[in-house]
Specification:
The protein is 67% helix and 0% strand. By secondary structure, it is mainly α. It folds into 2 domains: 2-132, no CATH class; 155-241, no CATH class. The chain is globular, with a radius of gyration of 22 Å. Bound molecules: zinc ion (2 copies).
């Protein structure tokens, strides 16, 4: 079963017992891609990797993360051939631009841009292209499949799932959607009977942590125990929208 190679990271994500194992897996997928794109193995010098980064480039968010990752020389190599590629693409757009002409809408799939101006339609689509986003998305999909593979086949994992702290709201949505695609109706019922109370209980828990943080600032509570409220702010932010607000930039291993 091809999912089996993903069971180790999925188990690690649930063992981490943070606010969302799926955030944990998305972060891992992103960090793996930063290592691949820029890491000490210098895979950015390999023609097949550079072909992909030249074609897809990077989004604004990932340029930011590549900058803080370190490795100026690696970034410069990637940028050099990527810029060459952009020069060609932009030249083509400029050559074919006719004032007043309308952008062609794609025949199927979601339109990349709402604009009827062809240059704006091109720049909108261009802004969304990203080598890291693309591969992170693919890895995340496989991790999600693996969660359900383990749910169906490993009683130990089901136990781990039930003992987790739930998920952030966006990833809760991903789980519900995937469950409706891969589980038969009867099994969906069992899954949601676990997931829904878990989500509500853990949102209540976060609410209590945030409330106690505020109480702790009252001078009458200055000697009281912090309980679980010390890091309640970043955990609550994660629970609501996902991600790790308190994370330091992920940097190249020296
Ligand atoms: Zn999450
Ligand atoms: Zn990106």
């Amino acid at each position: 079963m091809k999912e089996q190679i993903y069971t180790i990271p999925v188990n690690e994500a649930f063992d981490a017992k943070d606010e969302c194992p799926l955030c944990f897996l998305r972060r891992k997928a992103e960090q793996d891609m930063l290592d691949l794109a820029l890491g000490s193995s210098a895979s950015y010098m390999e023609p097949n990797v550079r072909e992909q980064t030249d074609a897809l480039g990077f989004c604004r968010e990932h340029f930011q993360k590549m900058y803080t990752y370190g490795n100026s020389l690696g970034n410069a190599w990637i940028l050099k051939t990527y810029l060459k590629n952009i020069q060609t693409k932009m030249h083509k757009q400029i050559q074919s631009y006719k004032p007043g002409a309308k952008a062609k809408k794609p025949l199927f799939g979601a339109a990349a841009s709402e604009s009827s101006n062809p240059m704006k339609a091109w720049t909108d689509a261009f802004a969304k292209e990203c080598f890291i986003c693309k591969h992170q998305e693919e890895a995340y999909e496989r991790y999600l499949d693996t969660v359900f593979y383990l749910w169906k086949s490993e009683p130990d994992f089901v136990k781990k799932f039930k003992e987790s702290k739930g998920f952030c709201i966006p990833h809760f949505g991903d789980l519900c959607e995937k469950a409706s695609q891969v589980l038969p109706p009867k099994e969906q019922e069992e899954f949601f009977q676990v997931l829904f109370p878990m989500m509500e209980e853990n949102l209540d828990r976060i609410y209590e942590d945030v409330s106690w943080l505020i109480e702790k600032y009252d001078y009458r509570n200055k000697d009281a125990d912090w309980k679980n409220s010390r890091d309640a702010v970043p955990r609550a932010m994660q629970k609501v929208k996902g991600g790790y607000p308190a994370d330091a930039p992920y940097q190249m291993k020296k």
